[in-house]
Amino acid sequence: MKTKVYFTVDTEASMAGALNNPAAFPTPAERHVFCNIGGRPFGIPLIVELMAPYGIRATYFVETLATRVLGDADTASIFDYLLKHGQDIQLHIHPVFHYYSELRQAQAEGRSYQLPNKAPDLLCDFAEAVQLDLLSKATAIFERLSGRRPTAFRAGCYASSHITLRCLATLGIQVDSSMNPCYPDVSFRGEWHEPNRVQKIEGVWEIPVTVARTRLRENETGMKFADCTSLAFPEIRRMLDAAAAAGQEHFTLVFHSFSAVKAKDLTYGELRPNRIVIRRLENLFRYLAENRARFQVSTIGEAAANPASLEASSHTVVAELGFLRAGIRKTVQFINSPYWV
User: Fold this and answer.
1) Which of 30, 191, 259, 334 is deepest in the core (most CB within 10 A)?
2) Alpha helices of 147-259 — where are they, by DSSP H?
3) Parallel, antiparallel, or unpaired: how do β-strands 250-256 and 40-41 relate?
4) pLDDT band (50, 70, 90) for residue 329
5) Contact present, 70 and 13 (Cβ < 8 Å)
6) All residues at 6 or more sequence positions from 117 whose CB lies less than 8 Å from its CB, including other chains
7) What is the pTM of this model?
8) Where would I find the beta strands (DSSP E) of the chain?
9) Which one, of 176, 155, 177, lies nearest residue 165 by Cα?
10) Is-contact 176 165, C-beta < 8 A?
11) What is the number of alpha carbons within 13 Å of residue 140 lying toward its C-beta?
């Protein structure tokens, strides 16, 4: 049995500090999603371009609540591009955009407005009725701009919970991919679930972000998730090989629309390509194509359309990442971190 590999891309605007700085404003798609540099895009079109020679697609979790701030045309440009290139598009939300739009509306009308006391970007912190309302609004925008309803979801900041999944079930969304054990304070907070295991919760299939253990203690969980931004290609290859050897049926990688660039500041007004990350992507897609006997690159949308493939999932493994590779990676990332490098 091949391991199904899902390359997922959180595709979103940035607040750019606007919630606390009246002079700032969220970034439009051109800067934070398409990431144009000198007429060449290094955002989602780069990912499409790098995958195309191998005939593989990604799942793009597109944030829609920013539409209330940036307008239909801005978000529509994302949907139009991805639909034109035959990509899998699913739902992603950051509640902060909803509350920022409410704040701006109140200010325009001369009304006072109090932001939620809780962190306004963590969906899991809100009551069930509020979560359902936010998800309903986001889904309506998604449907208006894409012509169909989403079948899968990822919460911004991975901030999902049992309550969130119950809301998704109410809306007819069959799959969630928010569970990330590297963030226990926000992702299914207070709950324990076996890492990397696909399971059904509140009537919704949870396809978690794939994680590994790291011997170099880099955070309180001792785990890292599969992301070409934070892991070197040899580490991700080790995770993939371990999954295939163990018979793990599903493997989820994470990326962001802006991960292949370095920004000079929060506005993303000046960008440079992140050559290290781009090289990792190239190596990853080539490796998956060269190992088709073990890996099948698929999409979350295809999984949602074929729930029987999720029913059979039973094998999991949490790979161990070596100390030396992690040390080399951190050194390279430190050198590469300045904008001008």
Assistant:
1) 259
2) 162-170, 233-246
3) unpaired
4) confident
5) yes
6) none
7) 0.96
8) 3-11, 36-37, 40-41, 59-63, 88-93, 152-155, 175-176, 199-201, 204-206, 211-214, 223-225, 250-256, 261-263, 271-273, 295-298, 320-321
9) 176
10) yes
11) 7
